[in-house]
Amino acid sequence: MNPENQKIIEKLKSGNELFLQTGKNEGDVSLAIRKKTAEEGQHPYAIVITCSDSRVIPDAIFSAGIGELFVIRVAGNVLDNHQLGSIEYAFSHLDANLIVMLGHTKCGAISAAQHSHGTTDRYIKYIIEDITEAIGDEKDDYRATVLNVKHGVNVIKNAFHDHPEIEADELDVVGAVYDIETGIVEWI
What's the CATH superfamily of 3-187? Predict the structure, then answer.
């Protein structure tokens, strides 16, 4: 792993510890930082792909403020060309070189995939199909979540392994699971 990205992971871990201790987001959302990022642009240190579940708030979980995380949210943290394009934008144009695939416990999309026997929903079926590909017939909630995260990590690595704008060892992709009850992030 790139040493700079290892430092960022340590920053995220420290931010999660702060979140656990205080129970709130300690990130900077002040007028000064809003003004600074409006004038100078955003320079996030990490890209976080996570579920759109309202109980999962990456900025709070990692005690991050405005301009620190580039967050991509979609149910079940599945990936298609839109999310991959957002990732590409963040590392190509914003120089964010650490990607965190963040799953979470008690994910409704994973539960739907585990208990799906075909759905009549017009668009949800695409999410369920992707998750089913990732988890197979795994019925344990946590193990299915880990499998889904690992699948996402592999999709990202495969999508960008030969990208012309990425130098060797510049971009790192890691997986993590957020426990919605305890607030703890476990790194995979």
Answer: Carbonic anhydrase (3.40.1050.10)
